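Minimal example, chain plus flavin mononucleotide.
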Amino acid sequence: MYNQTDLYQGKSATVNSFPASYEEWESKAEQILPAGPFGYIVGGAGSEETMRTNIKAFIYWRIKPHLPRDVSKRDLTVTLLGHNFPTPFFLAPIGLQGLANSTGELGTARAAAKLKIPFILSTVSSYPMEDVAVVMKNSPHWFQLYWPNDLDLMISFVRRAEKAGYSVIVVTIDYPAHSWKERNIRNNYNPFNIGEGMANYTSDPVFRSMLKQPPEQDRKSAISLFNQLFPNPHLTWDDISFLRKHTKLPIMVKGILNPKDAQLALQHGVDGIIVSNHGGRQVDGEIAALEALPMICDVVKGRIPVLMDSGIRRGSDVIKALALGADVVLLGRPYIYGLAVAGEKGVMQVMKNLIAEIDATMANIGRTSIAEIDFSLLEWIR
Ligand SMILES: Cc1cc2nc3c(=O)[nH]c(=O)nc-3n(C[C@H](O)[C@H](O)[C@H](O)COP(=O)(O)O)c2cc1C
């Protein structure tokens, strides 16, 4: 499917002088972006211990290759909810992408569509969902729902997503309140107070009907209303049941870390679970998503897909998460650094590098398909 020589980062690095490693993408993004937006993207909750834990959790799992085997042909495709996808990673919902690059979600969507890799659009995006859907065309795109504090607005978001061709609704449940983010406080920077991430709201008829004047004429009132509607501390499983009755689209819940909540997710008829701690952005001292993953898979027992994010940086991370039971992983911050460094081309390069690294790792551990990546490949060393 992919032209391997085209993918290898060595060649790409020479041709484009793009970074090879995640760390270099991050430090290039830091050089480009102002302190406020960079701090917002890179940062996490409190002391950022959860962020560090997410990364450390991967180190204790080590890979035991099975060789020699004929690995001359390798297949990175996965099947999820009855559809085939080219890679075992999708693009995580990341809001306010206009902070990284003026093309925002449109740049990301262009890159994702070219590789047919699913892009999950955030509710708090910098461009309206319809504009992003036009760019994605027939490529898979999912809509991440931050359930607003108003039922009519929630229904409007879901109907718009359905109409625009989004094929899965991802309800994020781990954001009942803004978290304590020391970097934002230090930088005196809160993007939500300056109207970033409102595109789906200001383009919504229900939102507009709640305002005395259109947002184009009175931005301050629009920002104030937006901040009353997001985040929503009232969300419960009853709401998920309500949504289940009101959309035919598959529903995934994102932000599950506790096996008891995985059980509840099954009871409430969801179609998939995303094990995630929001990249360490919500709670300091939280369990790493990778640590929670096997416990969640134990409860789910293959009945619905389990996806995972928070800490995926390299090909070997993808392999480890798959071996611990994830069907697919989501790539987060790395592609936003690509977007910050070089817009669509940067996102494309980050994805191509990851594909090449997954492919090379599979060959070198004796695996030719994603289905062959299982727990027997891993050893836990402390
Ligand atoms: C800047 C930023 C904004 C994010 N915005 C959203 C969002 O709007 N909706 C959501 O469900 N998750 C959001 N997330 C969380 C990601 O979907 C994902 O869980 C996280 O990035 C994974 O962690 P990692 O980037 O460290 O791998 C955001 C993450 C970052 C870094």
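Residues 333-365 form the longest helix (33 residues). The pocket of flavin mononucleotide is lined by residues 41, 54, 92-95, 122, 124, 144, 172, 254, 276, 278-279, 281, 309-312, 332-333 (CB under 6 Å).
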